[in-house]
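Re: magnesium ion structure - here you go.
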Amino acid sequence: MAKKNQTLGEFIIENQAAFPFSSGELSRLINSIRLAAKVVNHEVNKAGLVDITGAAGETNIQGEDQQKLDVYANEKFIQTLTNREIVCGIASEENDDFITISGQKNDHQNKYVVLMDPLDGSSNIDVNVSVGTIFSIYRRVTPLGTPVQLEDFLQPGHKQVAAGYVVYGTSTMLVYTTGHGVNGFTLNPALGSWYLSHPDMKFPEDGRIYSVNEGNYVHFPQGVKDYIKYCQQEEGERPYTSRYIGSLVSDFHRNMIKGGIYIYPTTSKAPDGKLRLLYECNPMAYIAEQAGGKASDGFRRIMDIEPKELHQRVPFFCGNSEMVEKVEDFMAR
Ligand code: AHM
Ligand code: MG
């Protein structure tokens, strides 16, 4: 039973005991993520102090400029997971291809793969606005003892074993699920410990916030335009309000606590949407569903989509169930 103020370490050990036949591999993996998150947090927090921000002069596979901190976060997460030989493969939004991990200890014997967006919300890094890390964990489908293959990564979201995010905000939080609800831990930076501050997180019943980049309005599909107009109508006293940070993790986190929907639809400029199915949408969808919410591409459940490629993009509608259903109604018209 999760107890408020329990440390993440204690929580992991306690949960591990709840799965008597598990090997502890998943617990060790979450432990590695919490360590890497602390290291990245330290760096993100002093971004304004040292000359670490700014484009690193590289472009990622999506053709976007990489910021230095993106590169740093990517390296730290990969290093931590690789050095500890805790996973058999890693796929990152910042790398063109997946990474195969073969260790000294046990060649290809680990059963999990990690997919991640090491630092999401890159446009906010330079301006002291919160950013996040997103991760997703699957059991490999190819045999143990052999190198991982693309198919180990191209699994639908409903096969996820765990997913989570770190939000580097006014305080730093690690929020994750292993399929038994969602728990949020806040970092005490003085002690370097994560404390359970938000046990069993759930979307409130009523959602009032819609988060969408309205600057793209003219390029949105009609269903999304209609939904936005519905939220804005005066009819009765429609209680909606708009909040958009431009960091998926932060927008999602606020919406899960306060009640709301995050929307990144297709636009005429981005016909498949902007967000990546494997690194961003599936993990957020898993957390949303575990918190009583929903995630859709406008027509179908995100976690039922069969991925075709590592960097696949999809339109994304995620948040309070009733709000997601409403926008799906408009999309279907
Ligand atoms: P990134 O992976 O390059 O950071 O892009 C993802 C981000 C999301 O965090 C955010 O919600 C969205 O892109 C914002 O996009 P836009 O600036 O088009 O509104
Ligand atoms: Mg991203």
